[in-house]
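Homework help board

Subject: predicted structure for assignment chain

Our instructor gave us this sequence and asked us to write out the predicted structure in token form, then describe one feature. I got the tokens but I'm not sure how to describe them. Can anyone check?
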Amino acid sequence: MLYLHMLKDDPYMLENKYVIVKRTIKLRAFKTNEEIKILTIEGNLKVPKGHYVVVGIFGEIYPSAPEHFERKHYSVDDKDSHIDSVIGTYKYKHEKDPDCVEFSKEDILGWNVYKVRYMELIGAEAQEDLIIDSYMGKQHGKKGDFIIINNKNYFYICNRHVFNHTYDIMKKIKKSD
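My token output:
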């Protein structure tokens, strides 16, 4: 089991790194006005006030720090997104904490629509099961999931199935790069 601490460990030291690009899909998100807790693929996570709650392409919900969300997405004046038909359908494997917020489909359809900007990132394929300890809580991942690296102090787990449908691998990073 690999254990990474967001403020202590350097994700750039990981093996099996790739240059990746997130596909330019339209999704829904809202900015929190208070700290909340949500159930994600990676477990129960805290979302600090001012952070975003996002719905992914399979209806999964995840948090995003404002500086990273706003750098990677822009608001569009559309009424529909690519994820509207899957809202509320994702089946989580983790047990939900009783203090997690639940969102109805009607709630989510009222959130703003954003489009992903073209941007190259670094992703590392996990060679074993892993846990990332972050300010939002512990994120649990499996061998084959990807660690998306925004910078040395902000990285997160992306489930392999979700990764395959939302990112493109541009090239493998050689050890000498």
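Reply (TA_rk): Your tokens look well-formed. For the description, you could write something like this. The first helix runs from residue 66 to 72. That's the kind of observation they're looking for.
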